[in-house]
Specification:
Helix content is 10%, strand content 52%. The chain is mainly β and 446 residues long. This is Toxin-antitoxin system YwqK family antitoxin.
Length: 446
């Protein structure tokens, strides 16, 4: 009967009960981690290719399932996993501690290190380190006997911190900090036994407070105060038993603040306080190809490149998230790869020039300022010919609106002041002849 040796990261100890760490202080715990790091760093000095060359006479083919490798070679000291092209996928050094133990290294196809950790008697122990494919550090996760214990750190690929979470006995406990990619604090929150408890503060990218309130047993409790980017008080939302009981925000401010992940989607937030969703989740088509790729942070928020695919595998949509908020450029594609949508986001708000494809393949070109159209907006027929031209100031229609037939002949002319239709509204036939005139005053047809 074919033997199986299944090694699944972070699944080694799920069904075992382990007591909390025996160390008297955090310093003792981290001294222990430092000793493990020494062993790991010493092993990392050994090149996988050199180890393989030096041990080629002792390595034998093994029928094991090691990180999905197509081929496995091993002896009493090492296990090597190879992909279908013969490239090294993983290297495991056995017996690095007293008793059954190993140091596991996992590699990207380009040869860069993807992950390294120590397993002690089937429990991940020490600091697990993961890396981006570029070689930059991604995560540092402290474990003692299979449970997260200590300060977990996640990094942006630019090297700045993305997230810091403190764990006690595998549960979030104490202060959690999320950061913008520029290094400034995005969100500060306190946890107890894996649930939000205590002060909560969220900041704008310029460092000003955006939201301030408190959590109790994972739910918002009491008054949450909201501020503008220039520190102006906007209003408050009052919570009791997870329900909103009072809201003093204006409708406009509420719409602007809805770009915030927690404020916009409480259901997703509640999930994030009770589940430790980290890494990518992929939904697939019946043919097995990916439909949606969703990367999550330690707080259960979208974090990284969110991608949607066509059934043939080509990308249909792509956007980057930072801690649940859209950042950077979103791009929409046709199946042939042609770009039909391109919008830039800053802190969840549209900013700058935008190309959007609407229903019926009507395209819109506009400029956004703080999530509102500002300046000229153009609509185009699927043929690319101009359909409509109008202007906006801070999201409100202002000035002349002209609509065209696909032939280029003017179809309608209208006029707006402060988002309300005023003056004459002219209608033309396809030959350019005036066929009707309406008159508006303060948005009302006369």
């Amino acid at each position: 009967m074919k033997k199986k040796f299944i090694i699944l990261f972070l699944m080694l100890s799920i069904f075992s009960i382990v007591n909390a760490h025996p160390f008297k202080s955090e310093k003792e715990l981290y001294d222990y981690y430092a000793e493990i790091d020494k062993k790991i760093n010493e092993e990392l000095k050994n090149s996988p290719k050199k180890i393989l060359k030096d041990r080629k006479n002792s390595l034998k083919s093994l029928y094991l399932d090691v990180f999905g490798a197509d081929k496995v070679l091993g002896d009493n000291s090492y296990l090597f996993g190879f992909d279908k092209n013969g490239k090294i996928m993983s290297v495991m050094k056995r017996a690095v501690l007293d008793g059954p133990s190993m140091i596991a290294r996992i590699y990207y196809p380009n040869g860069n290190l993807k992950e390294v950790y120590l397993d002690d008697d089937n429990f991940v122990t020490g600091i697990v380190r993961t890396y981006y494919e570029s070689g930059k550090k991604h995560e540092e996760i402290p474990y003692y006997k299979g449970k997260k214990e200590g300060l977990r750190k996640i990094y942006f690929e630019n090297g700045n911190l993305s997230n810091e979470v403190y764990y006690v006995d595998d549960s979030r406990d104490g202060k959690t900090i999320d950061y913008y990619s520029n290094g400034k604090i995005f969100r500060l929150k306190y946890y107890k036994n894996n649930f939000g408890n205590g002060e909560f503060t969220e900041y704008y990218r310029n460092g000003q407070i955006k939201v301030k309130g408190n959590y109790k047993d994972g739910l918002r409790e009491g008054e949450f105060k909201f501020y503008s980017e220039n520190n102006k008080y906007l209003g408050s939302v009052f919570y009791k038993n997870k329900e909103i009981i009072k809201n003093t925000l204006s409708k406009e401010d509420e719409e602007n603040l809805s770009t915030n992940f927690e404020f916009a989607d409480m259901a997703l937030f509640l999930r994030s306080t009770t589940r430790d969703i980290v890494g990518a989740t992929t939904d697939v088509y019946p043919n097995g190809k990916p439909r949606i790729y969703m990367p999550y942070s330690v707080n259960g928020e979208l974090h990284g490149d969110y991608i949607e695919f066509y059934e043939d595998g080509n990308i249909s949509y792509k956007i980057t998230y930072e801690n649940g908020i859209r950042q950077g450029k979103s791009i929409t594609y046709l199946e042939n790869g042609k770009i039909i949508g391109e919008t830039n986001y800053i802190d969840g708000k549209k900013e700058g020039k935008s190309l959007e494809t609407l229903k019926g393949m009507i395209q819109m070109k506009a400029n956004y300022k703080n999530n509102k159209i500002d300046g000229d907006m153009f609509l185009y027929y699927p043929s690319g010919k101009l359909l409509q031209k109008r202007s906006f100031i801070n999201g409100k229609a202002e000035g002349e609106l002209i609509e065209y037939y696909e032939s280029g002949v003017i179809k309608e002319k209208a006029y707006f002041i402060n988002d309300k239709q005023e003056k004459e509204h002219f209608f033309y036939d396809e030959k350019g002849n005036l066929i009707k005139t309406d008159v508006y005053k303060n948005g009302v047809k006369q």
